[in-house]
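Sharing a chain and its predicted structure for anyone who wants a worked example. Both blocks are below, sequence first, tokens second.
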Amino acid sequence: MPLLAPFAAEGRFFKGNLHTHSTASDAVRDPEQVCALYREAGYDFLALTDHFLPKYGFPITDTRPFRTNAFTTILGAEVHAPKTELGEIWHILSVGLPLDFPPTTAAETGPELAARCAAAGAFVAIAHPAWYGLTVADAESIACADAVEVYNHTSAVAEDRGDGWGLLDALLARGHRLSACATDDAHFKWNDYFGGWVMVKAASLAPEALVAALKAGHYYSSQGPEIHAIAVTETEVRVQCSAADAVSLLGRGSVGQAVFGSGMTEVTLPLAILKASPYGRVVVIDAAGKRAWSNPFWRDDR
């Protein structure tokens, strides 16, 4: 039975957080403390993404000194420029930037800045869209985006605005082939860390290998559950996972179906559930209500 990406990709899974802040911008722990916190919690990698703003000196925080043989960091930033449909500055997650990435110019727009990040080799994600009311038109203007943050832990625990799936499903329905990432966006002013992460399938823990895997969509996102494999044939989707009480196969609009049980580790769903939907995605929910999300798969890619 043919496996979907990332499960068919070479390498192993590495656990990482893609969105984190430090005292280099508006958080309360310094970069060394932040890296130590995630390393000691069993993460394999961390992207420290401080706010790329003039009041903080446009930081690309250098976390290279905190790498070890078993833990690495990816350089990046949360970049900002005018303006969304609601008139707010953009929040764009850029993971894999060079240390000498030039500051934002006064005339630069959000889409232009995002394009410059992508040209520099970064994985570009539309950050916490529900938190500041991003529209579909906003998102479509970031033509270079690789992903949407579908879960942002800080936005969820602080303001109940952490869910980005509504926006991503709308984009998928319009044919935009984006992936889905879960992040912390930790600032450490309250319990806003270790809530959402990515599991990236890569050939090695080298930062460039992780960024390449992210851009290829070779990852899934989680709050706790593990997805071991997703395989698709002409007639069915088979999901292997850690103990789950619900597993869903979802598509465009209201298309979808769930299987319910207790401690399920393998579930088979008919591909016909997707009907005319051009894409599908899998959600795994455990007994505590924690979720894991696959990236969307496109039926014409199989």
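Comments welcome. Residues 123 and 214 are 7 Å apart (CA to CA).
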